[in-house]
Design a protein that fits this description.
Number of helices of chain B: 4
Distance between the termini of chain A: 58 Å
CATH architecture of one domain in chain B: 2-Layer Sandwich
Largest sheet of chain B: 2 strands, antiparallel
Oligomer: heterodimer
CATH superfamily of the largest domain in chain A: FAD/NAD(P)-binding domain
Helix content of chain A: 25-40%
Bound molecules: flavin-adenine dinucleotide, iron/sulfur cluster
Strand content of chain B: 15-25%
Largest sheet of chain A: 8 strands, mixed
Radius of gyration of chain A: 24 Å
Structural class of chain A: alpha/beta
Strand content of chain A: 25-35%
CATH class of one domain in chain B: Alpha Beta
Number of strands of chain A: 18
Shape of chain B: globular
Structural class of chain B: alpha+beta
Number of helices of chain A: 15
Distance between the termini of chain B: 31 Å
Number of domains of chain A: 3
CATH class of the largest domain in chain A: Alpha Beta
Strand order of the largest sheet of chain B: 1-6
CATH topology of one domain in chain B: Alpha-Beta Plaits
Number of strands of chain B: 6
Helix content of chain B: 10-25%
Radius of gyration of chain B: 14 Å
């Protein structure tokens, strides 16, 4: 094969690219998905909690599938506030155990890619797209790091009517296509590191009070990030734990702290120390989370090109949305591509309908709603420093109030708030938080 | 209470297919590193890829987790950043 040509080429085999590929393959569109990893999922890492409803959009029979990527249903989820002295936990038990589940990307993405292959999608793994081909102001294909043939060692070209960029957070090709100006800034991303941990046999169920139908997903706030703006997570898988922290990259760069030292410090906290005692590290990894929001949103389409998923920055960390948004955007791009193929027009004019679909979706409305959140979090460090400690102290006073005149206890609580943040400060924080949404 | 953490041990748990022929991370100008006072890359890189020894910045690209932090975290944009070639680099079993 000297030259390759497809209707659609998708760059990246994460949930965005695979969702898009499944939808196109189902309609019989001649589509190639290119993935640089050895298999889909091998380069990816997340928390991760996935919402069943989003998977059903591409795999309707889910979760009744063979080789299911489900680790555990999420039956209990909540927040743990870490003070230096102890923790306060807020947990909610879910009534519907099918709604959300924990997963690991190397298995989850591989599951989707197996499904996509069955639907007829062509997937080229171990292949990196190094550039896009621009002809007459139109993206008309990609260049890969494979030779054209045994004799011709120049990088191969793959032509396409439409190129869909599902390349994830490090959106090098989106930059090359001119859809966004230059790289993102350190304050626009969170650096997350994660460990997959294995407890001694039987301990996972024992320490977390689980059986095979139960699973836990906890977000961790406070001392866990040494007070830096960010959070931690602790999720239960079938036989392992996913544990990690995420911190805004700019604060890491400025603080000169090593992320893995912060992680180790977190593990040494008495609460986690007891939970994780004896755990073996099966894997350690790192990944960025795009938090540029609408401010940093690339142009979502151009002549012959569309951008989906993390490459566009479609995440909502507060609600653990990313995978689902990647899937939805992949589907919207697929619908747009089908429309364009029918029309036989791949120019901006036709592909603009992808942006229109996006703007009508809740993804856009949510991004709009949360557009000032990142700035708020970066400018209000007390959320990560002062409040977790404050919450802990308030509850300590409350739970040790027995045998005391309760008015004194309330006074002591108010004194503590005054000391830590000031009544006015708390009021201001509440108003500012409210202002974000109204 | 700074405890030093052995990052090599953590990295050792993760699977890599090292490309011995292509270093995907390159320092554009050693001069710039020399004049860079805070050298944040020595700290923020989650894989400890950047180290300073013999008055020189050493880049162990073999341990890179391809997160992309150093592409934008180096205050002087002094790192030429690329992904490893297709099929090489980190390869998660769990993720
Ligand atoms: C620590 C962490 C925790 C998270 N937790 C959650 C969670 O609990 N729930 C949730 O829903 N979301 C979570 N997310 C977010 C979620 O993982 C992402 O939003 C989602 O994976 C985005 O999917 P994507 O397909 O757009 O990108 P990716 O999954 O990043 O996929 C991009 C793919 O493109 C490939 N690629 C890139 N460049 C090239 C190239 N040049 N050539 C060939 N291939 C290329 C990559 O190898 C990769 O496979 C989390 C993320 C992180 C980092
Ligand atoms: S931060 Fe950049 S300039 Fe400074 S030492 Fe590291 S690579 Fe060199
Ligand atoms: S990409 Fe990430 S892991 Fe690799 S060298 Fe840069 S900061 Fe370190």
């Amino acid at each position: 094969m000297e030259s390759y040509s497809f209707d659609v080429v998708i760059v990246g085999g994460g949930p965005a690219g695979l969702a898009c590929g499944i939808k196109l393959a189902e309609k019989g569109v001649n589509t190639l998905l290119i993935e640089r990893g050895r298999f889909c999922g091998s380069k990816n890492l997340f928390g991760g909690v996935v919402y069943t409803s989003s998977i059903k959009e591409i795999v309707p029979e889910f979760p009744e599938v063979s080789q299911s990527p489900v680790e555990r249903p999420v039956t209990e989820e909540g927040y743990i506030f870490f003070s230096t002295k102890g923790v306060v936990k807020f947990f909610h038990t879910k009534s519907d155990s099918q709604e959300a589940f924990t997963a690991l990307r190397a298995r989850f993405d591989a599951f989707l890619s197996e499904y996509a292959l069955k639907k007829g999608l062509l997937i080229a793994p171990k292949t990196k797209v190094v550039d896009i081909i621009l002809e007459n102001f139109k993206v008309s294909g990609v260049i890969v790091d494979r030779p054209r043939s045994f004799k011709d060692l120049r990088p191969a070209e793959v032509k396409a009517k439409i190129v869909i960029l599902a390349e994830g957070v490090n959106r090098l090709l989106t930059e090359k296509a001119g859809l966004v100006k230059g790289p993102f800034k350190p304050e626009e991303v969170v650096l997350a590191i994660k460990e997959v941990l294995q407890l001694p046999k039987g301990e996972l169920e024992k320490r977390f009070g689980l059986n095979e139908k139960k699973g836990l997903a906890a977000e961790l706030i406070g001392e866990i990030t040494s007070g830096l703006p960010g959070t931690g997570f602790l999720y239960t898988n079938t036989n392992t734990l996913s544990f990690g922290i995420g911190i805004f990259l700019n604060t890491l760069v400025n603080s000169n702290l090593k992320p893995y030292e912060i992680l180790e410090r977190a593990k040494a906290h008495p609460y986690l120390h007891e939970l994780l005692d004896g755990a073996e590290i099966l894997e350690y990894g790192a990944h960025l989370i795009p938090e540029w929001g609408l401010q940093g949103l690339p142009k979502l389409y151009g002549n012959g090109v569309m951008v989906v998923g993390d490459a566009a920055g479609l995440v909502n960390p507060l609600f653990r949305e990313g995978t689902n948004l990647a899937i939805y955007s992949g589907i919207m791009a697929a619908e747009t591509a089908l429309e364009a193929l029918e029309k036989g027009d791949f120019s901006e004019k036709t592909l603009k309908s992808y942006e229109e679909r996006f703007k009508e979706s809740y993804i856009y409305k949510d991004l709009l709603l949360f557009k000032n959140l990142k700035k708020f979090l970066l400018n209000n460090r007390q959320i990560f420093e002062t409040y977790p400690n404050l919450i802990y102290e308030i509850f300590s006073l409350y739970f040790s109030a027995q045998g005391q005149y309760k008015k004194e206890v309330v006074r002591e609580i108010i004194r503590t708030i005054k000391r830590k943040r000031g009544l006015f400060g708390v009021l201001k924080d509440i108003i500012n938080l409210g202002r974000l949404f109204w | 209470m700074k405890k030093s953490v052995n990052i090599d041990e953590k990295i050792g748990a993760t699977k890599f297919f090292v490309d011995e022929e292509y270093a995907h991370l390159k320092i554009k100008s050693p001069e710039v590193c020399h004049n860079c006072l805070s050298k944040p890359c020595l700290n923020f890189c989650p894989a400890g890829v950047y180290r300073f020894s013999d008055n020189k910045l050493v880049v162990s690209y073999q341990a890179c987790l391809e997160c992309g932090s150093c592409r934008v975290g180096c205050p002087f944009m002094n790192i030429h950043w690329d992904y490893p070639r297709g099929g090489f680099g980190v390869s998660y079993k769990f993720g």
